[in-house]
Amino acid sequence: MNIAIIGSGTMGSGIAQVAATAGCAVKLFDLNQDALAKSKKALETTLSKLVEKEKIDADEKSRIQNSISYVNSLNDLSDSDLVIEAIVENLEVKRKVFSELETLVSENTILASNTSSLSIASIAASCKKPERVIGIHFFNPAPLMQLVEVIPAVQTSEEVLQKSVQIISDWKKVVAVAKDTPGFIVNRVARPFYSESLRIYEEGVADFATIDWALKTIGGFRMGPFELMDMIGHDVNYIVTATVFTAFYFDPKFKPSFTQKRLLEAGFLGRKSGRGFYDYCQELPVPKE
Ligand code: NAI
């Protein structure tokens, strides 16, 4: 099966790895050449670690790497059975990509968006054949997270829904079909997890490291909310909150945080930029002999 991924950032790279591991031929496209080079390098590092841990052998590593080609034109995606878009969380940009994409691929190609919060119906409406558009929402990091939400828009055909569920299940993921509503299931439930933590921090109830510690140690969460926001990226996380807030007619329970907005404006996007709530550039202390 030929899979195309548009956007080779955090999510696109992870989804490419998942599809290649499952035996698909993958084409990864990004407007930014550096992003493609970074993605290729990150895959090498990830797969090398898996070989070290004896989770895969060297042949499997080469097979996965050889299954992914890094392309620099949308035209290169014309022979795809399924295209998954994982670019910036901006409706107008996504709509433009979908309407262009539609003219390049075959009639039967499924066009999916990995959007966290935007309306699949609005994305589908940018296409002449909206019945083949669907949401396929992976979680970060895509190779490790089991759950994938599959979101049919009102326009999506039953056949496209069933095929999408089948493909994602074949990739050994657990599918939850969700209605096309802001944030779907997980991102809607998760909003108050971030927002309330930010409010507690802003009110000075505790510092962010203490809140993370409390939720992990006492609450049993694998990651604290601030660590998680740093991992997701404040650009992505803030925009998702703002989108859900707007889409729910400004319900105050989804109100975004100024603290997070300032981090985003400063370019402190989290792990990917080296600094968010935590500083990832600091050199670790060298252990004494
Ligand atoms: P990212 O910022 O890491 O990567 C986005 C990539 O898309 C960049 O490499 C950029 O150069 C590229 N790009 C932007 N516009 C483009 C265009 N018109 N054509 C081709 N490439 C383009 O973003 P990330 O985190 O991978 O998010 C991508 C999508 O996945 C967003 O819709 C986001 O909401 C969603 N998502 C993000 C999650 C996360 O934890 N980061 C989790 C689940 C979904």
From TrEMBL:
Ranges of residues in domain 3-hydroxyacyl-CoA dehydrogenase C-terminal: 183-280
GO molecular function, one term: NAD+ binding
One GO-annotated biological process of the protein: fatty acid beta-oxidation
Protein keywords: Oxidoreductase
3-hydroxyacyl-CoA dehydrogenase NAD binding domain residues: 2-181
Organism superkingdom: Bacteria
Transmembrane portions of the chain: none
Coiled coil as UniProt keyword: no
Full protein name: 3-hydroxybutyryl-CoA dehydrogenase
